[in-house]
Records
---
Amino acid sequence: MAALAKPDKQRLPKKEAETFKNIVKFYETKQYKKGLKAADLVLKKHPEHGETLAMKGLVLNCLDRKTEAYDHVKKGLRADMRSHVCWHVYGLLYRSDRNYEQAIKSYKQALKIDSDNVQILRDLSLLQVQLRDTRGFLETRRRLLTLKSTNKMHWIAYAVANHLDGKGKEAIKVIDAYGETVKEEGRERNYENSELALYRNLLLEESGKYDEALDHLDACKSVVVDGFGWRKKRAELLLYAGRRGTTSTGVLDRNEAVRAWVSLIRQPVGADNYHFHRGLQCALLEVDATKCLELMREKATRTPTDVLVLSDTQVTLLDDAYSTLASEQPRADAFAWLPLTYCPAGPSFDAQLDAFCRRFIKRGAPALGSALERLWAPQPNDVVEGRCRGSQCCRKVLDMAKTHAAALSSKSTFANGDATTPTSEAWALYLQAHCLEWLGQLDEAMAVIDRAIAHTPTAVDFPEKKARLLKKAGRIKDAAEMMDTARKLDLADRYINNKCTKYMLRAGNVDDARATAALFTREEAGEPEQHLRDMQASWYELEVGSALARRVTTGTPAELRELAGPALKLFLSVEKHFSDFVEDQFDFHTYCVRKMTLRAYVSVLKLEDNIRGHKAFVKACVQAAELYLLLHKADSAEVAKPQEAVDPKLAKALAKREKAKAAKAKRKAEADAKAQAEAAKEAAKNDDSKKKLPKRDADEDPKGEKLAALEPLKEATRLSKALEKYAASSVETHALAFDVSMVRAKPLLALRALRRLSKQSDQRAFVVRLARLTQARPAMTLTATVASVLDAELKDLLSGGDCVAFLRGFAARRPLLRDRSAAARAL
């Protein structure tokens, strides 16, 4: 559609038109002051020129003069509503404020005037993919490809748009159509062609065409520059396609799939990659292709043998494979660990377990006990029959640790006579303490770890373990002191410094914890708290916020807000970090397509889609919402409190006193600020070698007073809805949704949250809130329809009985103490 003709007063003379072009140029080159000066020159003669007003507003926005920027852009729009430039600038203004919905509306309005404007279409596509409007993104990229079909980037972006919209087959067709236009260039072995070929292969794999994907991978080998990635993908596709290849007698040469995975394991550090071991086990055991897809998705150190029942022949086959690989790479720990995960209980398992423990005791590895916990606490779908698991395995390790500790103490060798190191006795005691800790025998564990500390008092890990034992025993302050003792043994260890900070915060020593955390911040970065915020140290902000939140207990609404403000600021700072994570992907929408990092780009988009489901985001939102609910409760209690008659003279005197008190506090704050500024100025003057601190905008709400002053129930509802949207699988999400709904007197919403809680594996929050809703039901005033629905659903949740009987049955069915205590709380 052709642009509408402009009225005469919106047409600039030649000289001013050139100046206007310079404004655009200055904006694009970030010469904002020059752009502002050029805009003023045009507006001096043509004060009602809409596009110049809009561009001036855009420049002002870049100079952080937002109010003026919006005023100028709106004025420009009123002057020239038919200008696509004005609407485009309006969209850019909204985009800078992250108001993407309004920005999209502005871009679409601009496209109604100039439908073929490539720049506006490109900007619109960026916002659509940012908001995951995949259909809109697909249509916009199609229009761009139609307009600029010779541009490679538009072809690739259109293929990605089809992929994101779930049209993998169409994406493959687009890539193939593009390949037809560049036949000779497409055969060159370079990074771009390599990534495009591997991306096409990914599309085939996601479409379930594993045979075709394998054939394509073999065909494009000459183009791919990522040889390691090609080999890894080919090994996976051999499993998914069910192709085993020719069979040989050698265990590591058994078939093509086995050879592919063995070659990957033989790579440097390949033995430590458990994804390769999952592939090797699937290939050796000839697992069905469909089952392979499931098993290869396992995480961390889990392997198929954890969930597969093995025959004696299969166990022997795996033993032969790992013994051969271990002889080639004797230092690789995986070859010593993996046989333990599938070996049947008996003398062979005991011998392997003892050798594994001795290997790491001699090395002095504190993670030995944590690694063995996989055997002590198997997951629900793990095979346990015929294998040594649970507390039986833990006690076996405990006996081994005791035996070796005694032998090391008496004759300085292991029980079997193997040579050792001077600190091995201490590490045997450490393993013994870890086993006792896992078994819940904390006093015995404490006595053993004291022996380890006496043996090697300079080791950091031993007092750290004692601090953990003290924490589990409920002695939080003693634990913090012991962790500080461990920290002082190695002042250059960031991990132990952070651990000490966390323990101090759990003990309520906020000031000491902040000083400890500041030891590892950079001096040139400025204020330590601000530096940690800039580094997005969410764990620190959550721990400090939790420590401050524990102080918010009782008091007047004003007192509670004063205490809650700093904690709210920290919790909502974590929420902002996740918003920044999502926002940070914006620049990659064009960069990744231009640089052809398509597989990584799609992977990042999938990560960003679920990033707010992270436990840090959930914890920050839940704790902030709980504080807001506490403030709302205090406000409600204050309103419900009967107002006593106050003597007018007394009220006037009290008001005068409060005014004087506030004025005094204000003068003191101003004096302190002035003194700090002068001290900083003097320090800077006396220390010429000190680097200048980075310039930052002043914090308008350093104590969180503005956050605490917000309407608490509204904010709690906002946070609850955010969790329901982004973290629907979390128990805390639905527990908070129930609590907020009950405060808002929304019983059906509370019931919905309760239904969702009933489907969670952890039932503690469910039973407590079910009892709460049941007890609150008689006092509710409801319509007949709502009452009938609520009563029917509660009866169903209670299995037709009363609440007390349900809770007693729940406690009887659940052997764990935490479940029984939840039922007791509900009663």
---
Amino acid sequence: LFSCPRQHLELLPYYSRIAVNLNRVHPEVGPSLCKMLEEEFQSLMSKNSLNLDESRIRNIRFLGELTKFKLLPYTSTFMILKVLLDDFTQKSIDVLSALLETAGRFLFRTPETAVRMSNILEVMMKKKNAKNLDPRANTLLENAYYASKPPEKGIDKEELPPLHQYIEHLVFVRLTPSTVQQVIRQIRKIPLQEPVAREFLLKTLLNVRSIKISCIPVLASLISGLSNYHDDIAIDFVDAVLEEVQIGVEQDDYTQHQHRVSFMILLGELYNNARLVDSETVFNTLYMILFSQSMQKKKPDQISNLFRARLVLVLLNTCGRSLNRRSTVKKLDVFLVYYQQYLLSLHHTPYELSYDIQEMFQSLKPKMVIFKSFQEIGAVLAAIRREQPEDLLLFLKKWRDKNFSKAEARESVQDDDPKQDEQYSEDESEEDSDTDMDLESEDSVSGGEMNVEPKDIEEEEDVTSDSSSVSGSDTEYSDSEEDSEEDEIISIKQNLDHLKPSKEEEDSLEREFEQMMKESLGTAKFASKASNMNLPAANRSIISKFSQGSGGATSSGGSGNSVQFHVMIKKGTKAAVRDILVPKAAKMAQANESRQAAEAQERSEIKRLVLEASEREDAPVAPRKYVLQPPRIKKKTERW
């Protein structure tokens, strides 16, 4: 805090506020900071260098800010003022002016220090008049004096007529939930047939900023009571409220945001209690807030969009329960879908606004479907415009369940379509027949020609091998791949002989491996076996009877070219097991077969390692031989 840069004097109030807040928790922070600043003030004032002017100004402004936060004692502040007045040189005048501009007004307006501060100001002005100072110093002192003690200027307050004062008293002071009828009776006694009194009453009622938010429903009740006797006042009041809401959305002035929120609450209360506004007007206002454009901005910014969402939220929290009735519930459901689309179009929603929106949906429409993407809700709105359902909530639920089931089916049956497998087998049989015909033609040609060179024979063999690989026999290709991989491994081993681990490293590796196997065996004894208790009781026996391995696929129930799979299908709340035959050439069957082979190999490897470890444990341990070595005798060295 002490090392605030002297080039950024605007940070000093924030540094002072941080110091005050820290002083509440750590009481030693404030006095230590004040002591350091006072010592710096003394050292800076003892030097006459002109390069220290910025440091002096930073120091004295910091002390002034701490004085305003009451962290620096008043006695220390007045001691600094006395030192500066006694010196009253050019550097002291600069520092004095900075201190008075920072904390002079505060000290003059504080009752504890008002008298002493006025005396210091008088002494300063007397010294200014007595000395022949340059114009710059005179200007600094005068500015500091009037900043601390501004000239008394009478405020011309407009005097209202007694009738207007009585109207303000009734609306701003007397109006409470228990005195609504009394205020209505008193307002009826006012000569409202006079244009001046009528206009002032409307102006006072529309001054929502001067009324507490908790009293806005009472104001709506007052307008409702007056509408029984003066219809024109109620009509003009509602028109003025709607006009204020529209002007606020079109102008989009940041300084009027709280004013617009008050008018939205008032509009909702006019629909709730007073019934001076119908539901169509409320829905038109809601859609206008979302989709109207600002007159001053071609494209609203993020702050404007978030404030529009806040206005809609305020209006729905005010009159949402009244709109959630049989006559208007359908319109409300449709608007809430559009409201979700508007929220999803925003790039980012603050946490406070998102929590308020979630709370509104839970209290107003707990069964409403909440969408997560803008594309999804666009498709929903298109379906709503096309079908126009009667019960929108039921339609949205069915639409979501339908799309969810489609997505699950698309993910599960993406690569396992039986029609595609049949086409695949038919294509393979056609390719096999074509390759057989090609081989017969080649054999006839080779039989007709007796003088065939060895190169031609090798080419024919290559062609036959290629055709056999195309027909689906991948065994030769896999064997060749394995041979090539083994050759590569042998060549790599020959090239990496110099990287072989030493005998000590192999022994340490074996010890670590034995310890790991012991730990794994100890944990395997207490490990719980996998069970199928989450399956239905009727199907558990079928699965355990026919499933072989973990994949649930068997080849006993199908033909030689197919594999049998057991699939559990859920219909409503019941589950059933069905058998399907999948060709062996399908990707699913091949993947299942390779997985079972890998698991079998892994089990055999684990079994081998366990047996080796148990044999190693049972083997007798050879006793270690210890060789005693004579102790070393240190030679004494003499130092010269």
